[in-house]
Amino acid sequence: MAISFTDREADIMAVLWRRGPSTVAEVREELHDELAYTTVLTMLRTLQGKSYVGYEEEGRTHRYFAAVEQQEARKSALQHLAAKLFDGSPELLLTHLVSGQKLDRKQLERIRKILDEKAGKGRS
């Protein structure tokens, strides 16, 4: 399933992934932008309509939770990015990501380990 968020939706999902199940007011408090309560509620309902968010009733309020895993969303976003901007090539995407960054030795070692495992060299 392709998972796609607007920037605002991604902000709300980040709150739910970080905090866990939350009320509209709790989500609103965690956002960087000052949004009206009704705006946050509308966005949560939109995310619910897309099956990205669910809720549980808690008295007179709803407690919303992420219905998709953050890792799934990351994977989908990267696949979309690779398809749209890098001709579907994970190699071009990875090359672009690491070529413009200052990476320390530990980061490079983790990347090498992942690449070695993908190539079948990291198995013992």
What does this structure look like?
There is one protein chain. Strands 1-2 form a two-stranded antiparallel ribbon. With 124 residues, the protein is mainly α. The model has no long low-confidence stretch (mean pLDDT 92). The chain has 6 helices and 2 strands; from the N terminus they run αααββααα.
What is this structure, in a nutshell?
The protein is mainly α. It has 6 helices and 2 strands; from the N terminus they run αααββααα.
Average pLDDT level:
92
CATH architecture of the largest domain: Orthogonal Bundle
**Integer-rounded radius of gyration:** 18 Å
Order of helices and strands: HHHEEHHH
CATH fold-level name of the largest domain: Arc Repressor Mutant, subunit A
The CATH superfamily of the largest domain bears the name: Winged helix-like DNA-binding domain superfamily/Winged helix DNA-binding domain
Please give the number of β-strands: 2
**Terminus-to-terminus distance:** 33 Å
Strand order of the largest sheet: 1-2
Question: Structural class, judged by helices and strands?
Answer: mainly alpha
- Strand residues, percent: 5-15%
Helix percentage range: 55-70%
Summarize the biggest pleated sheet: 2 strands, antiparallel
Count the DSSP helices.
Answer: 6
What top-tier CATH class of the largest domain fits best? Mainly Alpha
Whole-number count of domains: 2
